[in-house]
Amino acid sequence: MAGKVTLPILLLVAFFAMSAGAIVAPVLPFMVEPLNTSREAVGLVLGAYTFSTAFFMFFLSTIMDRVGRKSILIPCLLINGIVGGTCYFAPDLETLLILRFIQGVGIAGMLPIVMTMIGELYSGFDRVNAMGMMSMTTGIGGVSAPLIGGAMAVYGWNVPFLFYFLTVPLAVVAVFMLPETNLPEMRTKNGMFDLAKSLGDVRISYTMFLAFAVFFLLYTMVIYVPFTLKENYGFDARQAGLALGFQGIAMAIVASRAKNLAEKHGKQLIVRLGFIVTGIALAGTALANSLLLNMLFIFLFGIGFGMVQPSLNTLITQVAPPKMMGGVVSIYNIMKYVGQTAAPLLLALVLFNFSLPVVFVSSSVIAFIAAATLYAAKDIYAGLDGK
Is the separation of the CB atoms in 305 and 247 below 8 Å? Predict the structure, then answer.
């Protein structure tokens, strides 16, 4: 069912879904003056879209399996492209926030549809390979999108928003080149009820917990490593961003080998080892006393994250009921946003009462707990490693 261009198109969709925040992030400080706003308020340019994405992702989860995949993906690509590009013309912060909120509706359907279609189009280790390619694409995007946004911002603070227009021709290509994987006879009629029933499966709920955990760990690094680099080594924002890029490079390299790793060692073991590696990297960051060691642990974290992410993405599509895969994958992706949101909220309390090294140690404990529970519940994914 999958043609030669199917996976490249899906990977492009994943890249654009990921770039919604990353391409704008380095430009935020340069929006303050032209929008006549404050450093605190301009952060809402990211917050408006992440809140909207999580909210509408939940809404889409209830209808995802009742309609065709393309009937959701194509409008989402058009919304992201047209509304995101229109942000270029926003005259003030209020207008920009409204547009970013609407843009979040488009982002909400993009990555869940990509993961779901990969789950429906591929099987066995080919699915692991496709998920690994998707993780590699988002990893590359994590490194390149801020660089693209920064380069475009040379011509104006609002120029990076024009990048989103590229998803409009991608939507046209998808209309003609992507197959429909959720045919009428495969669709569920009781979306909300069947979704709630699916979430009662311990394999599904546990996989969602692991998604929450690994993105909690990711945002520990993304948020607090720049503070370490600034306070200890005098890094500016650009230098800190480049340093974090090593994490994305490591993730992309390892994710590209996801199929080989899964074939040799099994997805469960790879996920467990990935959590251990991220735990070591976080604990090491707390203890590192040189720039070289800090860079080593940043790279090591990317290796661990690259081990966890493709296998988890594959497992959620394996344990989800075929007729509810879209809804389950949507909730799974919401848990990633919950992890991203919980990290700064909970770790801020740790930082307030203790110190920056304790923040990293606290997160490393979560990583080791995730690895330990995976070992204790190793039978939960029985029979799935070879598929």
Answer: yes
75: its two tokens: 């409008």
Confirm whether pTM is higher than 0.70. yes
> Does residue 375 surpass a pLDDT of 80?
yes
Phi–psi pair at 182, nearest 5 degrees = -115, 80
Mean pLDDT of 6-13: 93
Which residues touch 352 (CB under 8 Å, ≥6 apart)? none
Structure token digits, residue 37: 């706003």
Contacts of 355 (CB under 8 A, 6+ apart): none
Residue among 298, 155, 141, 173 at smallest CA distance from 228:
298
**Which residue type sits at 298?**
I
Question: Residue type at 219?
Answer: Y
Share of the chain above pLDDT 70, in %: 94
Give yes or no for residue 356 having a pLDDT over 70. Answer: yes
With CA atoms as reference, report the closest residue to 346 among 371, 333, 363, 334.
363
Of 96, 302, 130, which is closest to residue 214 (Cα–Cα)?
302
Return phi, psi of residue 180, to 5°.
-90, 120
- What average pLDDT score do residues 70-95 get? 94
How many whole angstroms separate alpha carbon 158 and alpha carbon 175? 29
> Rounded distance, CA 29 to CA 102, Å?
23
Angle (CA) 353 355 361, round 5°: 105
Q: Are residues 317 and 382 in contact, defined by beta-carbon separation less than 8 angstroms?
A: no
Is the Cβ–Cβ distance between 65 and 191 less than 8 Å? yes
- pLDDT tens figures, 32-47: 888 888 766 777 777 7
Q: What are the pLDDT digits (tens) for 152-192? A: 888 888 999 999 999 999 999 999 999 988 777 666 666 66
- Asked if residues 112 and 106 have their Cβ atoms less than 8 Å apart, the reply is no
Per-residue tokens: 153:
């911002």
Whole-angstrom distance, CA of residue 121 vs CA of residue 354: 49
- The residue among 73, 55, 74 whose CA lies nearest residue 64 is 73
Per-residue confidence band for 137, with pLDDT thresholds at 50, 70 and 90: confident
Cα 158 to Cα 65, 155, 168, 317, 333: the distances in Å are 37, 8, 19, 38, 29
Residue 341 host element (H or E) = helix 325-353
Q: Give Cβ neighbours of residue 377 (< 8 Å, ≥ 6 apart).
A: 206
